């Protein structure tokens, strides 16, 4: 018999909303605690649930990519957020990018209207005593709650700095100097490309490096997550670093002269109205006036009006391998689970995955007391396996990458074929597992 005790979820972000939906669809009553709209973190702007902050991209849709494998598994398990993402997508080449406002609004409607979910719009200042509990507060918990978290996990916190990219008004872009296209794709209109010649690029890098930045507080370390490295920090590594990173021209041909540009800034649509674009890979900690000055050195953005400047914020996360089981339940406290970035999984789809994993494990423990651990050959299982087997001293947030999958038994020298086989194995293992437990948990 199912124990239909109410499950409390703290945080209405990606992980919290996915967890709430997975439990509610199984007729488990959920109390979802979200402090918006009454209070917002420094990085949040919208009143809606499941707000996308840093980017509007949910990573690659290429079938031989690790993020695609994870998204395919999430869809197989009826992930609400991945389904809605596909319904709100905007053209973005091989990436699943969405109209972020439409995406968040649709998730909010579904969650608020669900008969088994009650949304409580109020700041939670202390860890509730009631369990089951899923803590999905995100990486920016308010001070009181962060203090309570420290007491819960023994102040075993780590942190890094995260940065977000600027957004530019579409009407202020010089389209005569730009061109549409995606790398290696002819006639694509997925990205608006802003080319720079050698002199323009070197001037841009020079001014980027000398631009004034927001100072870090004296007690904070200068630690960044590699996938969200501010563009000015990347530029410190050498004059050509950006040309082999976010400004790489490879695979693009400028139709204005039929040549590959020296460097390129790619702009990605914010929505299907195409009234705003974000600068791809341009996370930054520059002061706003400096962003306005330096980014306007990009020829296509000479007269640009920025509707949102880039910014950097402190992201907090727990030492998950020390604190959590692979099920995402605390080792020291039964029926308290973590999900999302606070648990040390970095990225949108990773947050969604942890929301799903934590919810399924809550449901399983309520029904039969067992843990749900996916096979390590699957994308979901590889994330769980990382927690189980991590032995290093300096735990860093992780993305979904092929390095998390166990190696193939048979050696395959060609990377593309190797990735294809890993993807095929993941799909087989997942479906074998689902068939084995069919009717029990899913």
Any chance you could write out the topology, listing elements then pairs?
Layout: E1 7-10, H1 14-24, E2 30-33, E3 57-60, H2 66-76, H3 80-87, E4 89-90, E5 95-98, H4 100-113, E6 117-120, E7 133-135, H5 143-153, E8 157-164, E9 167-169, E10 179-180, E11 191-196, H6 198-210, H7 231-235, E12 263-269, E13 276-279, H8 288-295, E14 306-308, E15 311-318, H9 320-323, E16 336-338, H10 348-367, H11 379-389, H12 415-436
Parallel strand pairs: 1-2, 1-7, 2-6, 7-16
Antiparallel strand pairs: 3-5, 4-5, 8-15, 9-13, 9-14, 10-11, 11-12, 12-13
Helix pairs in contact: 1-10, 2-10
Overview of the structural elements:
It is globular and about 65 Å long. The mean pLDDT is 91. The strands form 4 sheets. Strands 10-11-12-13-9-14 form a 6-stranded antiparallel beta sheet. The protein has a 5-stranded parallel beta sheet with strand order 6-2-1-7-16. It has 12 helices and 16 strands. A hairpin with a 6-residue loop joins strand 12 and strand 13. With 442 residues, it is α/β, with parallel strands linked by helices. Helix 1 (14-24) packs parallel to helix 10 and helix 2 (66-76) packs parallel to helix 10. The chain has 2 domains: 7-158 and 314-436, FAD/NAD(P)-binding domain (3-Layer(bba) Sandwich); 166-307, Elongation Factor Tu (Ef-tu), domain 3 (Beta Barrel).
């Amino acid at each position: 018999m199912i124990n239909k005790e109410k499950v409390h979820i703290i945080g209405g972000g990606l992980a919290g909303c996915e967890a709430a939906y997975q439990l509610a669809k199984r007729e488990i009553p959920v109390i979802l605690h979200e402090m918006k709209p009454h209070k917002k973190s420094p990085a949040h702007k919208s009143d809606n649930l499941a707000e996308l902050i840093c980017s509007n991209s949910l990573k690659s849709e290429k079938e031989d990519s690790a993020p695609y494998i994870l998204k395919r598994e999430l869809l197989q398990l009826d992930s609400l957020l991945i389904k809605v993402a596909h319904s709100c997508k905007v053209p973005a080449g091989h990436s699943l990018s969405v109209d972020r406002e439409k995406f968040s609004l649709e998730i909010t409607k579904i969650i608020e209207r669900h008969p088994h979910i009650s949304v409580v719009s109020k700041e939670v200042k202390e860890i509730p005593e009631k369990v089951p509990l899923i803590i999905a507060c995100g990486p920016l918990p308010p001070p009181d709650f962060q203090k309570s978290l420290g007491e819960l996990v023994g102040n075993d916190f780590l942190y890094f700095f995260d940065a977000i990219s600027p957004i530019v008004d579409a009407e202020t872009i010089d389209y005569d100097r730009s061109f549409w296209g995606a790398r290696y794709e002819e006639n694509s209109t997925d990205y608006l490309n802003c080319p720079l010649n050698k002199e323009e690029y070197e001037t841009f890098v020079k001014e980027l490096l000398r631009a004034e930045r927001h100072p870090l507080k004296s007690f904070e370390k200068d630690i960044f997550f590699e996938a969200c490295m501010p563009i000015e920090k990347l530029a410190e590594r050498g004059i050509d670093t950006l040309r082999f990173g976010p400004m790489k021209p490879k695979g693009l041909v400028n139709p204005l002269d039929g040549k590959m540009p020296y460097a390129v800034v790619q702009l990605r649509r914010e929505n299907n109205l195409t009234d705003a674009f974000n600068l791809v890979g341009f996370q930054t900690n520059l002061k706003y006036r400096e962003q306005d000055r330096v980014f306007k050195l990009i020829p296509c953005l000479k007269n640009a009006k920025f509707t949102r400047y880039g910014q950097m914020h402190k992201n907090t996360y727990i030492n998950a391998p020390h604190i959590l089981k692979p099920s995402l339940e605390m080792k020291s406290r039964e029926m308290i689970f973590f999900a999302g970035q606070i648990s040390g999984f970095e990225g949108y789809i990773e947050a969604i995955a942890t929301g799903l994993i934590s919810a399924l494990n809550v449901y399983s423990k309520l029904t039969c007391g067992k843990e749900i651990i996916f096979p390590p050959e699957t994308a979901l299982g590889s994330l769980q396996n990382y927690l189980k087997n991590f032995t290093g001293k300096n735990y860093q947030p992780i993305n979904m990458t092929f390095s998390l999958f166990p190696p193939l038994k048979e050696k395959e020298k060609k990377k593309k074929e190797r990735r294809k086989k890993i993807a095929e194995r993941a799909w087989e293992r997942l479906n074998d597992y689902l068939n084995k437990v069919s009717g029990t948990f899913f």
